[in-house]
Structures are given as C-alpha cells and as structure tokens.
Amino acid sequence: MIDAAIEGLYGILHWKAFALMMFGIIISSTLVAMPGIGSKTAIALLLPIAFVLNKFEAVALIVSIWAVSNTANSITSILFSVPGGGGSQATIMDGYPMAKKGEAARALAAAFTSSAIGGIIGAIVLLAAIPVLRPLVLLLGPPEFFMLVMIGVAMVGALSGKAPVKGIIVGAFGLSISMIGVHMLTGIHRFTFDQLYLVDGIKLVPMTIGLFAIPEMLYMASKGSGISDMPLGNLSAGRKQGIKDAFTHWWLIVRCSFIGVWVGIIPGLGSSVADWFAYGHAKQTCPGARETFGTGDVRGVIGVDAATNAKEGGSLIPTLAFGIPGSSTLALIFGGLIIVGITPGKDMLTRDLNVTFSMIWLLIIASVLTSILCLAFTRQLAMATKLRPTLMIPMILAMAVIGSFAASGRFEDVLVMIAFGTLGYFMRAAGWPRPPLLLGLVLGPIAERYMWTSVQLYGLGFLFRPGVLVIFLLLICSISYPLWQDRYSKNTRRNIEV
Amino acid sequence: MGLHFQLRTVLTLFFIVVFAYVVFEAKDMPEQARMYPWTIGIIALILLSWQLLRELFPTRKVETRETGADVDFTEEEASTEGKKRTLELFAWVYGFGLALWLIGFFVAIPVMVFAYLLRHREGWIVTISMPAVAGGATWGLFNNLLHLPFPPGIIFEIFGLH
After folding, report:
1. Complex ipTM over 0.85
2. Does B18 touch chain A (CB under 8 A)?
3. Spatial separation of the C-alpha atoms in residues A253 and A114, rounded to whole Å
4. Nearest neighbour of A186 by CB, restricted to B32, B92, B122
5. Closest-approach residue (CA) in chain A for B67
6. Do residues A42 and A31 lie in contact, with contact meaning Cβ atoms separated by under 8 Å?
7. Which residue, A92, A267, B9, B113, has fewest beta-carbon neighbours within 10 Å?
8. Mind listing the pLDDT tens digit for each residue in B58-101?
9. pTM of this prediction?
10. Are A295 and A100 in contact, with CB atoms under 8 Å apart?
11. In this structure, what are the phi and psi dihedrals at residue A215, rounded to the nearest 5 degrees?
C-alpha cells in the first residue's frame, strides 16, 4: 500500500500532471465563481482533452476541477448574497452580513482556509477507509454488486429532487439509454434504428454537455444581465484575521468536516444538504450562536465551508470502492476514468490502488492550492462574476460543440448534444431532475452485466441471498433517513431565515 | 377531483412512450438481451402510471410546481421576457447546428461568435477579437494539436472547396 501511495504522489507531482492540476484549479475556480456554470459543465467541456492524456494526467485534470469547486463558490455568496452553487447557500447566512459590515475579506479568508482544512480531513477519512473497504469489497459477488448499482441509481434518483418518483424514472431512462448499441452478450443491435452511429451507443460527453451546459446557457440568456454591478470594496483588510479565525475554531472545522464526509458517503445527498446540516450543527453547538448567527458570525461561515469541501472525500468512498458514483458530477468523472482505462470499483482498491492514492493526494494538494489561489486572487475571481452573459454564451456554445464533437469525431455527436440540451431544458422546466439520467447511462452496462451473471449463477433466487437482502434493507433505510433529515434541515433553514 | 392536464404532462407522456417502446421492442430479442430492458421498462412504466395519475388528478397535498435538485427553474426564466430570450437562444443553438453542417466548424464557429456579439451590440474590439480567438483555437488547438477531424461542411464538399 505504501508503494502505491508513493507512486500516486509521484504521478501527481510529475510536471505535466501538476500543470494540468493547476489548469483545472484555475478553470474550476473561475467558472464556479459565476453562478449558472457548475463544475459539471466545466468537466464535460474539458473531458475531451483527457482522451489524449495518461491516467495520472487525466485524473489530475478531471478530479482537480471537481475537488475544488466548492471553494470559490463562497465568493458570490459572501460578496453578493448569490449562491455560487448548491453548497454555498448557507454561507450567505453569515458571510453576507459580514460583508455588509465591511468584513468581506475576513469572511472570505475564513471560508477559504476552513475549506482547505475540510478538504484535507475528507481526504484523510478516504485514506483511512481504504484498509477497511478492501476486504469488504472482495467479499461481495455479482448479486450484491447488482443491488449496489441499483441502490446508487435509486438513491440519486430519489434524493436529488423534491420528487423521488420522478428521480427514479429519470434514472431508469438513463439505464434505458445505456442499452442502445451492440449488446455485449449476444452481439445483437438494440434500439439502434438501423443507424450506424447508434451502434456504439450514446456517448457520455455530448449527452452531458447537452443536458447541463445548454440549459445553463439558456438560464444565463434568460437573465439577460450579469450577477451584480455592486462595487467590490476592500478585499484585503482583515484577511489575516479570517485565517486566524479558522485556526481558532479548529474543533468546529473537524466536527463539520465529519458531517460533510457523512453526507458525501450517502449517494444522492449533495453539498446543498451538507452546508445546512453543518450550519445547523454549528448553531446548536457553538456558545452564544443562537444570538449571533445570522448577523455576521464568522463561525457560521467556517463550519459550512469545511463541511462542503470535506464532503468530496467522503463521496469518493462509494465511487472508488463499489463503483457507485454518488452524484452526476462523480458519474461524469467515473465516465472520464473509464475513457482513460480505469474502472472504478474493485480494481481501484487492488490493481489501480496507485490511482486511488493519486486522487487522495490530489484532494489534499488541490484544496490547499485553491485556497491560496482564492486568497491571492479574490478580486480577480470576483470580477469574473461581472462578465456579461452576452460575452460568455457564444464562447460556451462554441466549446460545447467542439467538446461534443471530440467524443467520437462525428457530427452526430453535435446533434445528440442539441437533442439532450432541448430535453434538459424541458426537464428543468417541468421539475424532472437531470443528475440521475447521467448516473443511469454510466452504470447501465455494469448493472446489466451483474444482473445477467447473477441470474446465470443463482437464477432469480439471487434476489433472496442474505447479502442482497441486507443491501436492500440498507437501501430502504438510506432513502428514508436522508429524506427525513432533508426535511429536518429545511425546517432548520426555515427557522433560521425566520 | 377533476382532470387536470398541464403542459408538463407532455414530458410524462414522452417518457411513457419511450419505455413502452423499450418493452415492446425487446419482446423479439433473445432472453439475455431482453431481460434487462423488460425489468427496467416495466418498473418505469408502473412508476410513470402513478406519476401520470398524480399529474392528472392532483390532490391538495401535492405541490403543483415540484422542482428537481438542479438549479431550480427561476421566476426570470418563467417570465414572458425570459421565455422570449430562451426561445431566441434556442434559435441560435439550432441555427448554429445547421451552420456547422452547411459550412463546417472552421467557418461556422467564428461566424456564430461574431453574429451573436453583433446582435447584442458589444463593442467593436470585442466583436472582432473574440471570433478571432474562437476561430484560432478551433484551428490551432483542436485541429492541429489535438487532431480533431472537423468535417468541412456540406457546401464546401459539394463545391469541392475543402
């Protein structure tokens, strides 16, 4: 294991991988500072570049974009009271009042520092989980893995929106799309409509770009203007105090980081849940918080940012060990890893353990570097929020078509992107969550393979194997408990807002 | 409890048609290829039937405007002005797709960027420099460095200009 850890570190520290990581960090920090563009869009647009990279370089690029996306989110939350992403809504509660009091720099510095520490704690938990997970994963057979894949899709479907049934249906739609193409076992063409392009199936990249980038562009276009025309004010005075605040409240950071890791482990729960859990916890446990939270208490910022960044380490646990991405962004990373020849799941804890370690190192290094970058270039990143949509839309559209085309070098990829862009818009408009669709597409072939192997080995009796029943019970508990917790966190949020 | 048809129900019906097709089409496939589509398709159809009933006969408890976990559909988007802008951008996306097919990536990309900036009355420096950057990146980075085989466009193919 130590050899794999050293190999993983060397892989990331190679100049090309390191440069790609820095590129990923800069791109991610800049793009996520603009509401409307998430890390998903950034990864989808840059994924084609990963096709020509080796596995460490691809991991450095893809994972760095995702791993640091929660850090720069805080800029718009604190400065303009506009959440930069799902995980930065609770940051507004105390971050914005601090900015109004002239303490924006302090709030931002505290947020970035706690984010870095949270990221490191998340990575350490992931590291500690490896020795526990390795023997566990090797004990599971195809029926248990089939059930785990179903859990992944069902949980992300059920928990990714306010309409669990819609989420599960969308997950099933993703699984159906994955059936298009040549069937692995029989070699027959399924659902190809006699089109040569469809024989290889629908590609992940054009579908993702269409599903997420196009509706986000439409969102930007419908707004018609940038986020804010407010002056940025002094963004350097108080910076040292903010960093000091984070270290003073280190125990709060540790507690909230563990909350973040726990939320991350459960597929389907995102940053938007982690931040409110952490905020609620900080409010309940910090002395005097009931009076000061909501009026500009730095502890409210620290706890939230630590939790949202620590979540990423936790969410890699089911992805790497069981091959179940807990969110659509992780599904995209999952797809990207497959493209460069790495299969998430059992292999990540055995044959490709060095790649797993490279991800852990990356979480640590990228968290620290991003925080330093955000501290040093806060003003420049905040300026990115002032870019007009009219300047961004044509460039994103151009990148979207090139990114889609790069998937297989065929014009049909562009058509797939446009078709899913249209579908994505109408899904948003009608309240159908999009993330489960991506997860279904990625996990579909794996689920089918496990299902057929299980039927061959045990007949339909595989459904009644003890391991499968235990996982099924876990599925029921895992879906119902977070739904209850989500309701609890919403009540907390409502009470706080009142 | 009367029938309550909303525009959003069209999407539910779309999914029903898709899954019905999946189940129907799979019936002639060999068992190995049929089992998975049937399992997924039938479960989805059962859930969709329930969803359709909920939409057609909503009870008071059911929210009429459920949203997903992605970025929620905003009031700005739902407004008439927002819809107009959305419709215009859809026209740009589809028009751009058509332009790519007709005149190829090398020409369509800078032309689209230029036309979009011109339409939104950006300054001349931006209107000229951004298409140049976009065209340059397409040709230099993606064509020469990453060797993407961009098609020349049907018009150039017909006239043998590629």
Report:
1. yes
2. yes
3. 7
4. B32
5. A431
6. yes
7. B9
8. 775 544 444 444 556 777 777 888 888 889 999 999 999 999 99
9. 0.80
10. no
11. -60, -30
